[in-house]
């Protein structure tokens, strides 16, 4: 099957003719429009179109829309395309044998207005067909996948983790290298997300580990090379993402153009910012002469809670009268962490005639129990019509779902979803369903790669969901047994827990050939992380193993260090990944108030892992999580549940809603007052006749109607 990827082009009519032809020829591979950009001695060369196929090798297309013939210049252009592509591919040793490139490079100009033709200049679509049918790549089966890796620049990812000097074939280090080597190409949905460009809003949804951050970095590099006069901004919530974006964007641009990025055209900035550091919110407020709030100012005005940033964004959006454009393109990672007001702010910061906004998210990774609203609700209406409607039927992918998970194995991902949703949790009093949260959009289950095995996803119906190798590749789990991939452990106290974790880390470093950067320890509660991990840090130091608390001993932008184990609270862990993840004190997330937020913490922590997960905690609450894990494990990592109806979902959202400290204080005070009244009535200190009749009736109405 041929995948068509529509990039930036001014030659859509000729491109459509080529696309229509290719779709009749039964080729397998990719046809890229407006991709790639080749870096040469005399500067960048933008390729009109590129065919990469197992049958033909590479075909570089020049699409000529003019009638004026200059054969000498045309042949020189085709030669430059060939020479620059050859130079690019020869940098990848795995595409050559004894210095001979094993990939055929073909160049073709389609010039329907020309009167003169040649072997490489076609004046009709029939001639293009004849040319393509004459091509044959005998080594295609052996080299095609490697060629895609080079064309898509995925080899640049591998520069981060060149694992050398591995001595044991069965060590975790060797297994991890094998996993990393398997992830060599973008899938068709990732390719579309990177290259397909719309003059408006584009939404990218995907699971944790589906490549959203890499896709956005590649997209920045692509837009940078295609639009030389546009200012591009990338923004996010987790500050540790900044280093990742800088590294990835640099590698991709250098690989494409042989030039270092011009950072005056690319802004990698945190969403908020402060008086001393750049942020999208601060830049917006300054440009529009609005009051700017840093974190302390926001907490002082709106309270010290997770909604403080939402409130200052809301104030800014509602205060601005004539928003000034700040950038030409904005890309937002971790959009599930932001309110609609921040996305509106991004939208307002773009030129009115071309609001190029790309936002990517995974709803279950929200640690503040936010749900990303529909584009219509986020961006509002004008004259009764929505400002933004996402439509894939116009030939461009405006709404993309990345369904394939390349980080987490099937058992890890399904366990994370099981605990995150509370699939096998025992429901408590007042609860109508065991689930603590659920996707609002039923179709999203299948969009993110689940398949219905039994039943149907419908209110009140029983359903069984599972994942296939198509969306959860087998190589992510085949390297280790289930009991090694995932372990849940209960301890009597945190000293026992620390002893077990330190012993396991020592083994992983000394015997299993893992590096310090392959290990991450996550604690669910930022308020007590520093004190809780003290036993672990002391015991690691006694073993000669350094550790650091991210954002305490280091800056928030620096997560991993070459000679130190990263210990992080959950909010700083987001956006990062490691081979083995230790989620400690997980019992805090088993039950209680704000349960949907707590379960999101479990999901987010577990999905940081590229291979192995260790979940540990204290006491009976940890047993509850172990029981849930055993339930999904016994069902061979399938999700079996009765889909809650509308009433049950309402009950679920009320009970497990995210509550502020003020709300919790009010609830505790109200419960205490009710308990006091009940006790006095039972003891005869007051009689029911003493109570105000109107108040009693109103209470009855609220409780029972």
Distinctive features:
6-stranded mixed β-sheet; alpha/beta; Trna Endonuclease, Chain: A, domain 1; Rossmann fold; 27 strands; globular; 39% helix; 705 residues
Can you tell me about this structure?
With 705 residues, this protein is of the alpha/beta class. The protein is built from 26 helices and 27 strands. The strands form seven sheets. The protein has a six-stranded mixed beta sheet, sandwiched between helices. Helix 1 (12-22) links the parallel strand 1 and strand 2 (29-33). The longest helix has 23 residues, at 661-683. It is globular. The chain starts with a strand and ends with a helix.
Question: Brief description of this entry?
Answer:
It comes from Blautia wexlerae. Keywords: ATP-binding, Helicase, Hydrolase, Nucleotide-binding. The chain contains 26 helices and 27 strands.
Number of strands: 27
Give the name of the CATH architecture of the largest domain. Answer: 3-Layer(aba) Sandwich
User: So what's the CATH class of the largest domain?
Assistant: Alpha Beta
pLDDT < 50 stretches? none
The name of the CATH topology of the largest domain is: Rossmann fold
State the end-to-end distance: 58 Å
Q: What's the gyration radius in Å?
A: 28 Å
Shape: globular
**Widest sheet: strand ordering:** 1-2-5-6-9-10
**Helices and strands: which structural class?**
alpha/beta
Number of domains: 4
Number of helices: 26
Mean pLDDT: 90
How much helical structure, as a percent, in the residues? 25-40%
**The CATH homology group name of the largest domain:** P-loop containing nucleotide triphosphate hydrolases
Residues in β-strands, percent: 15-25%
Largest sheet: 6 strands, mixed
């Amino acid at each position: 099957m041929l995948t068509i990827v529509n990039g930036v082009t001014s030659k859509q009519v000729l491109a459509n003719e080529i696309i229509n032809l290719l779709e009749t020829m039964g080729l397998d591979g990719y046809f890229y429009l407006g991709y790639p950009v080749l870096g040469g001695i005399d500067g960048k060369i933008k390729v009109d179109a590129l065919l990469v196929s197992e049958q033909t090798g590479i075909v570089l297309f020049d699409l000529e829309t003019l009638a004026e013939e200059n054969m000498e210049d045309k042949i020189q252009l085709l030669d430059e395309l060939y020479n620059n592509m050859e130079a690019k591919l020869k940098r990848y040793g795995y595409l050559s044998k004894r210095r001979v490139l094993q990939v055929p490079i073909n160049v073709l100009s389609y010039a329907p207005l020309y009167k003169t033709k040649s072997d490489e200049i076609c004046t009709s679509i029939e001639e293009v067909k004849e040319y393509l049918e004459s091509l044959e790549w005998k080594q295609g089966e052996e080299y095609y996948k490697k060629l895609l890796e080079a064309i898509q620049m995925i080899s640049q990812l591998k520069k981060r983790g060149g694992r050398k000097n591995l001595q044991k074939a069965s060590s975790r280090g060797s297994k991890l290298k094998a996993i990393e080597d398997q992830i060599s190409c973008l899938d068709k949905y990732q390719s579309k997300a990177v290259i397909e460009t719309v003059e408006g809003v584009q939404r990218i949804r995907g699971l944790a580990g589906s490549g959203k951050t890499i896709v956005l970095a590649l997209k920045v590099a692509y837009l940078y090379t295609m639009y030389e006069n546009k200012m591009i901004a990338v923004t996010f919530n987790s500050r540790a993402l900044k280093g990742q974006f800088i590294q990835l964007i640099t590698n991709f641009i250098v690989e494409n153009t042989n030039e270092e990025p011009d950072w005056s055209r690319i802004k990698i900035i945190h969403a908020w910012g402060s008086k001393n550091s750049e942020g999208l919110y601060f830049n917006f407020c300054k440009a529009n002469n609005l009051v700017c709030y840093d974190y302390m100012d926001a907490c002082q005005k709106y309270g010290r809670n997770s909604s403080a940033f939402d409130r200052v964004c809301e104030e800014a959006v509602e205060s601005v009268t004539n928003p000034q454009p700040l950038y030409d393109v904005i890309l937002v990672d971790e959009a599930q962490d932001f309110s609609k007001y921040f996305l509106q702010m991004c939208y307002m910061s773009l030129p009115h005639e071309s609001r190029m906004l790309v936002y990517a998210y995974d709803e279950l990774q929200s640690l503040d129990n936010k749900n990303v609203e529909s584009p219509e609700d986020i961006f509002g209406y004008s004259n009764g019509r929505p400002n933004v409607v996402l439509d894939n039927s116009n030939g461009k992918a405006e709404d993309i779902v990345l369904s394939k998970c390349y980080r987490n194995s099937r058992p890890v991902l399904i366990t994370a979803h099981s605990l995150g949703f509370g699939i096998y949790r025992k429901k408590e009093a007042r609860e109508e369903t065991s689930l603590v949260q659920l996707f609002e959009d039923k179709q999203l289950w299948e969009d993110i790669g689940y398949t219905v095995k039994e039943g149907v996803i419908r209110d009140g119906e029983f359903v069984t969901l599972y994942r296939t190798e198509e969306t959860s590749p087998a190589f992510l789990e085949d390297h280790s047994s289930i009991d090694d991939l995932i372990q849940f452990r209960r301890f009597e106290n945190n000293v026992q827990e620390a002893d077990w974790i330190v012993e396991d880390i020592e083994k992983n470093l000394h015997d299993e050939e893992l590096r310090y950067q392959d290990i991450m320890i996550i604690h669910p509660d930022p308020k007590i992380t520093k004190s809780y991990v003290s036993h672990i840090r002391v015991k690691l130091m006694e073993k000669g193993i350094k550790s650091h608390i991210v954002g305490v001993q280091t800056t928030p932008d620096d997560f991993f260090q070459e000679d130190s184990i990263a210990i992080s609270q959950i909010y700083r862990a987001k956006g990062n990944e490691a081979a083995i993840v230790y989620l400690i004190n997980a019992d805090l997330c088993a039950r209680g108030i704000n349960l949907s937020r707590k379960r999101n913490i479990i999901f987010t922590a577990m999905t940081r892992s590229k291979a192995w997960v260790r979940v540990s905690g204290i006491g009976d609450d940890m047993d509850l999580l172990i029981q849930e894990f055993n339930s999904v494990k016994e069902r061979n990592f399938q999700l079996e549940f009765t889909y809650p109806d509308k009433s049950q979902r309402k009950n679920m959202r009320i009970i497990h809603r995210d509550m502020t400290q003020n709300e919790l204080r009010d609830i505790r005070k109200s419960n205490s007052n009710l308990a006091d009244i009940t006790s006095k009535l039972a003891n005869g200190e007051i009689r029911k006749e003493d109570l105000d009749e109107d108040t009693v009736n109103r209470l009855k109405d609220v409780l029972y109607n």
